[in-house]
């Protein structure tokens, strides 16, 4: 598509992980529907997974006005993603030059970039945009409470990393509720460095946008003085979950779901199925997989469980005889269409790792949860779901036993407490829809951002 001289062309830059691609693609869709041309630029390491076999070109149209492009991160795109620190380091070393080359190539093709948006793993995009004289905003893809937490402990007071903290609008946060990537015991060193750089560059960004909504995080956005005011434009999740079933279904899954998930759900009674998934990164250790497996079996509830084998392996770690023993009760799949599963009437609850996308999706679907956070922002998100929104319970101990799994499933699906959680989840669903409705808070913030794009650049 050759663009006219008046066309605004926004480049959204993100890391090539499912949890980053998904909200960025939804954001792209919201902008494209307002007539803005979008390039989603992501690291080459994701090329093979995103393009899959059918897509031969390096760039392709995900939707009329949205194209994907890849820039080099110094890695072999055919190799599996092994180590986050290693990937982020390569990205930082190789990314800026390669992305600058891509922007120039696009200009030569008549697709001049007029605005850039970075996500948290690529803070150097802010410098690149500045050098090119192009305005740049930040899209924070986790909750604003986490943004404020990192700002406070990395930018202002490192001594607060290990003591309980109070933030306006949130329950007292204990260290076990903190995001793990800034913890002194974390083995991921590059992430705190990247975030520190990000906070230092905030003076050069036009707007800080957040994948959350004011009805969900009303006060937290104010809590860290000195922070840019964050404008919340979320939830950046498929519109089907927000009451718009006919909106175009933007999707770029890195794994393939078997075709039987939804027909299997169709065969189950309303409100009867436990959905278990730990997102696109986490893999349970073998002993925990075993306890989870037997916990699901003894719960006697129907279940659909996503067990993603580790990179380069087909080994699921399920105990011997488990699959035969649960035939008729549950299915285990390597990936599933999560949005469709969460909106299916057969669903009872979601046992989730509380990745921020899954958190927003379950909130918008009105599905109660069993929170099972693993790392990064997930403990804070779990606290949100359980202690603030009161839509679920939390699996507590380090190694969760089968009895604890069974007990939590019973608590969320049966009895008075379960009824209260269901009601709270239904209220959350309404809040999410209200935020993106005409004149809703996120819709207004999105319009303010679109106005900024229209007012800036050539
Ligand atoms: C990562 C981090 O782990 C998470 O904590 C952070 O908030 C975002 O980046 P991930 O672990 O993949 O993300 O979890 P999540 O944020 O929930 O994103 C997973 C996405 O994959 C969701 O949009 C979900 O709908 C989708 N998904 C997951 C599927 O479509 N099918 C599946 O089987 C599993």
Automatic annotation (TrEMBL):
Does the UniProt entry include the keyword Amino-acid biosynthesis? no
Q: Which domain of life is it from?
A: Eukaryota
Q: Per the record's keyword annotation, is Secreted included, yes or no?
A: no
PROSITE patterns in alphabetical order: UDPGT
* EC number(s) given by UniProt: 2.4.1.-
- Major enzyme class: transferase
One GO CC term of this entry?
A: cytoplasm
Pfam families (alphabetical)? UDPGT (PF00201)
- InterPro entries listed in its UniProt record: UDP_glucos_trans, UDP_glycos_trans_CS
Q: Which UniProt keywords apply?
A: Glycosyltransferase, Transferase
MF-aspect GO terms: quercetin 3-O-glucosyltransferase activity; quercetin 7-O-glucosyltransferase activity
Family (UniProt): Belongs to the UDP-glycosyltransferase family.
Quote the protein name from its UniProt record: Glycosyltransferase
* UniProt source species: Amborella trichopoda
């Amino acid at each position: 598509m050759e663009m006219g001289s008046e066309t605004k062309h926004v480049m959204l830059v993100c890391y090539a992980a499912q949890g980053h691609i998904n909200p960025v693609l939804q954001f792209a869709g919201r902008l494209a529907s307002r007539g803005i041309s979008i390039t989603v630029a992501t690291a080459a390491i994701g090329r093979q997974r995103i393009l899959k076999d059918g897509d031969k070109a390096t760039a392709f149209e995900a939707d009329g006005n949205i194209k994907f492009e890849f820039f080099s991160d110094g890695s072999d795109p055919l190799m599996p993603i092994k180590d986050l620190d290693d990937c982020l380091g390569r990205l930082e070393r190789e990314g800026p030059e390669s992305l600058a080359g891509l922007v120039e190539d696009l200009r030569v093709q008549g697709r001049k970039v007029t605005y850039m948006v970075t996500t948290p793993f690529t803070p150097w995009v802010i410098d690149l945009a500045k050098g090119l004289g192009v305005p740049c905003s930040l899209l924070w893809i986790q909750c604003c409470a986490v943004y404020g937490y990192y700002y406070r402990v990395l930018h202002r007071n490192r001594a607060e990393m290990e003591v309980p903290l109070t933030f306006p609008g949130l329950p007292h946060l204990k260290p076990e509720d903190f995001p793990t990537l800034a913890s002194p015991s974390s083995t991921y060193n590059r992430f705190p460095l990247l975030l520190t750089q990000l906070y230092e560059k905030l003076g050069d960004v036009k707007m800080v946008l957040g994948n959350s909504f004011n009805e969900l995080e009303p006060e937290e956005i104010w809590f860290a003085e000195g922070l840019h005011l964050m404008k919340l434009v979320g939830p950046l999740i498929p519109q089907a979950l927000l009451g718009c079933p006919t909106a175009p279904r933007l999707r770029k899954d890195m794994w393939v779901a078997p075709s039987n998930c939804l027909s299997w759900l169709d065969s189950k009674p309303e409100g009867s199925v436990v959905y278990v998934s730990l997102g696109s990164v986490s893999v349970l250790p073998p002993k925990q997989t075993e306890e989870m497996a037997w916990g699901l079996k003894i719960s006697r509830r129907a279940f659909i469980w996503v067990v993603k084998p580790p990179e380069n392996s087909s080994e699921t770690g399920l105990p011997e005889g488990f699959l035969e023993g649960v035939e008729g009760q549950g299915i285990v799949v390597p990936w599933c269409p999560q949005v469709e599963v969460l909106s299916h009437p057969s669903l009872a609850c979601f046992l989730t790792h509380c990745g921020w996308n899954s958190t927003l999706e379950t909130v918008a679907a009105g599905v109660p949860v069993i929170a099972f956070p693993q790392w990064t922002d997930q403990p804070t998100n779990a606290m949100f779901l359980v202690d603030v929104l009161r839509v679920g319970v939390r699996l507590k101990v380090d190694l969760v036993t089968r009895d604890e799994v069974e007990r939590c499933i019973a608590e969320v699906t049966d009895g008075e407490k379960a009824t209260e959680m269901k009601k709270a989840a239904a209220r959350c669903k309404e809040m999410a829809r209200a935020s993106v409705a005409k004149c809703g808070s996120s819709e207004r913030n999105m319009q303010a951002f679109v106005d900024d794009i229209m007012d800036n650049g050539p």
